[in-house]
Structure formats: C-alpha cells, structure tokens
C-alpha cells in the first residue's frame, strides 16, 4: 500500500512540474493571438518568477515527503572543476559550430528548419 501511495505522490509531483511550461505555452499562445510576436518584459519576468517558484515548491515538497535528501558530498573541488570545464567545452563547441555555419553562409540547419515548421502557430485552419 505504501508503494502505491508513493507512486501517486511521484505522479502528482511530475504533473506539478509541468505547470510552469503549460503557463508559458498559454502566455505565448495568448501573445501570438493578440498579434504580438514577443512577450513583454513584464510577462517574461512574471513567467520567470512563476517557474522558479514552481521549482522551489517541487524541491520543498520533495524534501518534505522524503524523496529529496540533498547531500553535499558530491560538491568536491574536483567535481566542480569537471562541471565548469565541461560547460566551457560545450559552450565553445556550440559557439564554434554557430560561427562555422555563419562563415559558410548557412543561416539554419535542416533540424532548425524542421523544428521551426513543427512549432509554427497556424492561424488559419
């Protein structure tokens, strides 16, 4: 019985974790319907605060329910250096790839184009 209870609690937390992105999608859709192509600065700030609040709520509930027991044993000097170096390498590769594409005259990759077509908002059906 305890296993089933924990399963539904985890399922509820997973659903709760998606609320931030659902609110963002709704705000973006509303913005596009009103004719604006970008969200206003105020809307972006409110969404950021909402999503950070959602993350904090999930962390709080996870800790309170015993699912999240943070340990600082992982944060050693060696691991922090690995994380920083890995992040720098990933950013360097990303920026280098973008510069290489721009130097060859390519504005977007085939994947970018496919994703753009997939996410286009259709106003006429």
Please name the defining characteristics of this protein:
mainly alpha
Give a topology summary.
Blueprint (H helix, E strand, L loop, with lengths): L1 H16 L1 H15 L7 H25 L11 H27 L6 H10 L6
In short:
The protein has 125 residues and is mainly alpha-helical. 74% of the residues lie in helices and 0% in strands.
Tell me about this structure:
- The chain is mainly α and 125 residues long.
- The protein is 74% helix and 0% strand.
- The protein has helices at 2-17, 19-33, 41-65, 77-103, 110-119.
- It is extended and about 60 Å long.
Strand % is under 5%
The SSE string, one letter per element, is HHHHH
Residue stretches low in confidence (pLDDT < 50, at least 5 long) are: none
Q: Mind summarizing the main beta sheet?
A: none
